[in-house]
Write a structure and sequence with these properties.
Layout (H helix, E strand, L loop, with lengths): L1 H15 L2 E2 L3 H4 L8 E2 L2 H28 L5 H12 L1 H18 L6 H4 L1 H18 L1 H12 L4 H5 L7
Helix pairs in contact: 1-3, 3-4, 3-5, 5-7
Length: 161
């Protein structure tokens, strides 16, 4: 988690100071400003690559830890399956890379060229939120849709024969 935070802070810093002078980031459109900027697409591509690598690490680390836990095999597979859904987020991040490369070609209409990037970024965020909510959704499904509580099963009275 610390690596994710440091990576995010580093890219905020790079994004803020990618132009010299800093004001060039919002005045280069005029064509009158002088200075140099690192292309925003290159910043986005490096950010995407690092995020994909971190996503894969975040996918593999829990799987190895869960497999070593003292759980029933079925529960281990269920938990690992839930974590493996985050692989979809990594796939969406990888799908966004060609859109970034297309945007790099200096389009005549950057707003239109940016649409695939925006769409895939939105998909990535929404899928991430959904996957983060899956444990709660499971509890909702068990309790309200199926109409019973797992607690009731565990606290069933013991009867003697």
């Amino acid at each position: 988690m610390a690596i994710n935070i440091l990576s995010g802070l580093a890219f905020i810093f790079v994004s803020l100071f990618r132009c010299q002078p800093i004001s060039l980031a919002w005045t280069f459109w005029t064509g009158k400003a002088t200075g140099k900027c690192i292309g925003i697409v290159y910043v986005a591509l490096s950010h995407a690559g690092i995020n994909i690598a971190l996503d894969l690490c975040m996918l593999i680390l829990p799987a190895t830890q869960i497999w070593g836990m003292n759980l029933a095999r079925r529960k281990k597979i269920a938990v690992i399956s839930m974590f493996s859904l985050s692989l979809f987020i990594t796939i969406v991040s990888a799908i966004r890379i060609p859109a970034l490369l297309d945007f790099r070609k200096d389009p005549l209409n950057p707003t239109v060229a940016m649409m695939p990037i925006v769409i895939w970024s939105g998909v990535e965020l929404n899928v991430g939120i959904f996957i983060a909510c899956i444990p709660s959704i499971r509890q909702f499904f068990v309790r309200f849709i199926l109409g019973h509580s797992e607690k009731k099963k565990r606290l069933a009275p013991i009867t003697s024969g």
